[in-house]
Amino acid sequence: MVLERRGAGALLTFIIIFLISACALLSFREGSFDAGIAAYGLGAALLMLLAYNLAALIFRHIDRITLVICFFLTSIGLVMLLRLDMELAIKQLIWLGLGCLILFFTVVVIKKARDFGRINYLLMAASFGLLLFAYVLGDTIGGAKNWVNLGPISFQPSEIAKVMFIIVSAYFFAERRGRGASVFYAAYVGLCVILLVLSNDLGAALLYCGTFLIVFFAGTGRTLLTVMGLGVGAAGAIASYYVIPHVKTRVEIWQNPWIYYQTQGYQIVQGLMAIAAGGAFGTGLGLGYPEAVPVNTSDYIFAAICEEFGIVFGIITILLYLVFIIRGMIIARNASSRFDALLVFGATCMLSLQSFIIIGGVIKLIPLTGITLPFISAGGSSFIACMCLVGIIEGVAVKNGERDEREINEAGGEVV
Amino acid sequence: MKKNVLRRNISALLVVFIVMFVGLIVYLGYAVSTYGERWFATVYNPRIQNMKTTIDVGDILDRTGLKLYYTDKDGERKYVDDEDMRVSVAHVVGDEYGLSYGAQTMYAKYLYGLDKGTITRIEDLLSGAERTGSDVKLTIDAALCQTAMDALGGSDGAVVVMNYETGEILASVSSPSFDPTDMSLFLDGGGDSELVNRAFSGLYPPGSTFKLITAAALIENGLEDFETTCSGSTVINGETIACTGEHGDIGLKSAIEHSCNVYFAEAAEALGTHAIKAEADAFLFNTAFLFDDIIMEDSVYESANNDVDAAWAAIGQYHDLITPLHACMIVACIANDGVMMEPKLLHRVLDGGDETYTLEPDVIATPMDDTDALKEMMISVVESGTGTAAQISGVTVGGKTGTAEIDTGDDNETAHAWFVGFIDDAAHPLAIAVIMEEAGSGGKNAAPAAKKVLAKALDLGY
Fold first, then answer.
1. Is the dihedral of CA B372, B374, B377, B383 positive or negative?
2. For B284-298, how does the pLDDT look when each residue is reduced to its tens digit (9 = 90+)?
3. Cβ A318–B25 below 8 Å, yes or no?
4. Which of A176, B137, B210, B230 could staple B348 via S-S, CB 3.0–4.6 A?
């Protein structure tokens, strides 16, 4: 506990040094000192410091390592965005502030809630409605119809629905449900995925499918059914290769992006060049040319990070996600109820799978499916969804901590 | 279901995730270290074009120090003055628009100073010093390249000359070529195949030069004493394979000397297609060439499904394809006692006075332990066989001619002329491959060209 606290504190100090020095470097980029950029770094550092201490004060049992790692990943994103697109960086900082509030709010909600009971059906309807909404009224950006414009606000419904999807799934697998409820839930998952595929949001479809299967396996322990599910998934993927032209080109581009350079392979090839340009230790912040990479502030931000910070730093980023996963799984294992365990487990899996899908796609390990890089990519919906998921994890962590404390106190009482 | 089962499943999936993320890390490290330079050094990379304006780009020199592409006193980028020489080395040097795949693109890392550490570059940036790239010295000799281009006599094709002990490429030319000072035709999307470097990327049927591989397979499989009778043609599964002459009773040495199709077609039957495929693979057919200095196409030898195709494949027809550079690597390997050296094009990198990169020879394959018999056969090809036109007084030349038939589609069978050879002398370790497209007989056309180039190389002291 003390060790954890010290480790988290040290990491936070490192983040603050990182933020301030990176912003100081960027503030000299145009030749003369830009006080605004330096102030940005200071502001971001202060915000994180405040949020961390506030969180530790209000929720004594919050998992500090998880919180600090998500701040670390966020600060990598902020620095990269500041370097690529000032306007986006400022927005992202605002999202960080809002995200922290939402995180606190989620922690409180999760702490209070036992299993959401009947609200689950409401959540199901709401998440399905959001996806349907995107499919019917959505705008197509970057090939996928997953944006909704409501006057001044535009958001990605599939990001918000993600959080609900996790809660609903945890609820259904928390205890044995009747046949009717199971069929209902299965239909819900199937329809969600179909809507996402129809909206051409393949990254999200893959994410929902994968998360469902993982939670299904953990929740039911039915290996055979899970393998069958994987088989159906694989068959679906193979079928989509032949049926959906979009999927087929994706796979062909993945196999050899260079011959499609002029067309759909452009993004991958530019990403690979950026990664290669960095070498082990990067070109240095502001000294590379990640501007050449399309969507470098969103899906492709990992390539920009590799270019300017280097492969070693890219690997450190991957390791940060890994530590995040390990912490999440530990919290899930310690949870008192099956619902809590599955909630944390689902949230962790979703974030891990999402990072894997996009990093793997960018480095050409797997075919590219567009999705944001959790905590790092620019974008309000995505960031808020991530913070909600962290809120879920932290909420259960706080519950666990309070239970442990209670047990120790009770044991102590007996002795005296 | 019990909670501890859930815990067990969570742990199991944690292990799966750990494996996945470790996989990401391993793949990232592996991919960047293996393909990184290739990914970076492409003609599409806007970084290379952009850097030109902000960096004092390094010069490209040949091995003698002659400046092939450089910044003159007034800060202008210039190519070597002599037009013939400029055109001869054009594919190796490349053009400033990155339309061809030359040193300007491949060694951009050095020329633009990207090989220098981040710290040096940040220091440069802060001190306001102009970023400078390093000079790149190639292994080619521009004068030898000019002779090689001359020797092609206007034919389309390629010539590669290597030092077989070190793998250094002393000359590499590809015809037709282009003049990098006037790229307007190509910038408008015009031109034919002038920008293609046939020496590294041209895939040709190897024709009779492939008989060296079949011969090696015979030797390696203990069938060097295989004999047959050549009556001018042989029939395999109902298909006639014609020979260049009637060679009578014939053994391996004489079959190489006279390039007897009948002998090798029948030897292929005796060997079986698998043994030839294994030998071809040992000489790096069907291998992805991932060299640090050079981007080259991979050569192809497909296992044939029936005896006729196997016979054709054994004499270098069927689907066999090879690049001139790989052909040169193969003879170099035979000349170098079975040790194949990695082809090298980058000789030195010079940063001011410091040498930051120095060529070091690398062995890439050792397909045979003893190549004396093959060498002897190749020497007799030049002494008294099909390659007599490659004789040079004062040195022993070994070689193999090839006349690779190609179907041009309009019933006009024509042939590419090949000559691959070497000088059997440790003081002059030279290997050569010459291909002249649609020039007919290898012995009559490619062998004299090879002689001319090798003689010049000897003159230059290689």
1. negative
2. 999 888 787 888 888
3. yes
4. B137
Q: What is the DSSP pairing of strand B77-79 with strand B67-71?
A: antiparallel
What residue type is A121 in one-letter code? Answer: Y
Query: What is the rounded distance in angstroms from the CA atom of residue B137 to the CA atom of residue B348?
Result: 5
Residues 251-290 of A with CB under 8 A from B: 258, 261, 269, 272-273, 275-277, 279, 281-284, 287-289
* Number of H-type helices and E-type strands within chain A: 15, 3
Q: How far apart are CA B45 and CA B28, in angstroms?
A: 20
pLDDT, one tens digit per residue, over A357-402 is 999 999 989 888 888 999 999 988 999 999 999 999 999 999 999 9
Give how far A51 is from chain B: nearest CA, Å.
Answer: 29
Q: Verify whether the Cβ–Cβ distance A277 to B44 is below 8 Å.
A: no
Q: Where are the domains of chain B?
A: 1-40, 207-347+363-459
The DSSP output letter for A149 is E
A-B CB pairs within 8 A amount to 131
Q: How many CB atoms lie within 10 A of CB B190?
A: 9
Q: Which tokens sit at B98?
A: 């990155």
Instruction: For chain B, say whether A220 makes contact (Cβ under 8 Å).
Output: yes
Q: Report chain B residues whose CB lies below 8 A from the CB of A326.
A: 14, 18
Residue B232, SS3 per DSSP? coil
16-45 of B, contacting A, C-beta below 8 A: 17-18, 20-25, 27-29, 31-32, 35-40, 42, 44-45
How does pLDDT run across A48-101, given as a tens digit for each residue?
999 999 999 999 899 999 999 999 999 999 999 999 998 899 999 999 999 999
Eight-state DSSP code of residue A19? H
B244 touches A at CB < 8 Å: no
Residue that has been written with the tokens 């020496």 in this structure: B199
Report DSSP letters for B388-424, one per residue: GGG--TTS-EEEEEEEEEEE-SSS-EEEEEEEEEEE-
The residues that bridge with A150 in the sheet, in sequence order, are A153
Residue B29's alpha-carbon distances to A145, A257, A300, B34, B354, in angstroms, are: 34, 19, 18, 8, 29
Strand duo B55-56 + B131-132: pairing? parallel
Class of domain B207-347+363-459: alpha beta
User: Per the structure block, which two tokens stand in for A300?
Assistant: 């492709």
Provide the CA B368 distance to its chain's centre, in angstroms: 20
Per-residue pLDDT at B121 exceeds 70: no
List CB contacts of A5: < 8 A, sequence separation 6 or more: A64
Q: Compute the C-alpha angle A224/A229/A231, nearest 5°.
A: 95
Residue with tokens 């404390």: A405
DSSP B344: B
Core vs surface per residue B361-396: b (16+ CB within 10 A) or e: eeebbebbeebebbbebbbbbbeebbbbbbbbeeee
> Is residue B358 within 8 Å of B348, Cβ to Cβ?
yes
Q: Is A363 within 8 Å of B28 when comparing Cβ atoms?
A: yes
Contacts of residue A277, defined as CB under 8 A and 6 or more positions apart, other chains included, come to A283, A288, A289, A307, B40, B45, B47, B114
Structure tokens at A334: 């310690």
Nearest to A373 by CA among A273, A271, A229, A245: A271
Within 8 A by CB and 6+ apart from B78, the residues are B69, B70, B71, B72
Strand partners, B409: none
Comparing CA positions, the residue from B142, B133, B48, B129 lying closest to residue B86 is B142
Beta bridge partners of B235: B240
